[in-house]
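Sat 14:20. Reprocessing the chain from the morning session after the first attempt stalled halfway. Input below, unchanged.
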Amino acid sequence: MVAPRVPGPTLNPSAPTWPPMAAHEVAIVGGGAIGCSTAWHLATTTDLDVCLIEKEEAVATHQSGRNSGVLHPGFNYQPGSVKAEFSTAGTRRAKAYCRDRGVPLEEFGVVVVATTPAEEARLAALQEQATANGVDTELVDGDRLDELEPHAAGAAALHCPAAASIDARQYVYALARDARDAGVSVYLGTEVTDVSHTGGEVALATSKGDLTAEYLVNAAGLGADRIAHRLGVGEAYRIVPFRGEYRELVPDRRELCRSMIYPTPDPDLPFLGVHFTRRVDDRVIVGPNAVLAGGREAYGRWDIDLRDLLGTVGYPGFWRLFADRRMLRLAVAELHKTYRHDRFVAAARSLVPDLQRADLVDSYAGIRAQVVRRDGVLVGDPIVEHGPVSTHVLNAVSPGLTASLPFGEHLADAVSDRFAHAQTT
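Finished this time. Tokens:
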């Protein structure tokens, strides 16, 4: 596997201006887009003493840095939903933020192609959703689609110019730097190994020593459920990791995709399926598929973390999820796309028929922290639950990167209110 290219500096964990670990009023666990955004918003809207704890030596090492880097404008989300609200506002705000901070940004737009009459009918419904969400789109015929994406299949498409690509890691680095510059103490390479609530405060044992906080924000992504469960929160939910694999076009075939080419989403399926995305570094990635991961950080095709895998297969919700024959068929199809290159190519060729087998090479993989309830329901909406002195982001599914600024602001407001209430009770 080739890891995503990550230009530019990271935060320096040994910078002498950073204070030693001690007691803080608010501790945020998780240096992804949501955690860094929450830290920044708390630091700029309150006078609370905030720290951010990240187990890796750089922020955005996992979900926030191993995705497509797309800002999703919100045409595919139910009007009035949190996803719709946060994605439309998040796209607008993230674009402004990236321009202001010099984070690479390209407004390529996206075409959602229809290859069957049933899909053409769904495009009209998608446009209605987009209009209700305040997102500008255009239904285009085959001739206009040929102008936008000459190699794309389909007799019709929905064109959304607002879709954009950003350098996801540089974006999160900027958030972390802004949080640090606003007074947040940032601890990198610091893994939280245990957490408990005693005597009105939260005690955190870490790989670099103990730390206490009067309030905890759990934005730990792939490990969020484990932290929450230690505090008796969110026990009806468990993260089941799904690995998404990207391939990419070889350089001399990148002209097959000018912007982003998406399939018409199937409302009965939980994942979008393979699609084409032009990145800000001019690479064109294709994917992802979605297959059960061998661990929460098992990025290689054959990687297995035995503890994680046993935890997944020992969870009743996992077996109930795949008791649904439709989900089982989907899982088998996704497995084929992972281990059989020709199946992956066939899925991609349904969008770009000119694609050849040799046009695609391995790129990188990400792991989605997908929450599954004990009854086997795969949860598609954000889940935030609270303890007496803690807030837990248990599900920040796509479009988590897109939504990170309004989501972080929302969490910061909630934490500020709950912290003040906790101090008076």
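The chain has eleven helices and 20 strands.
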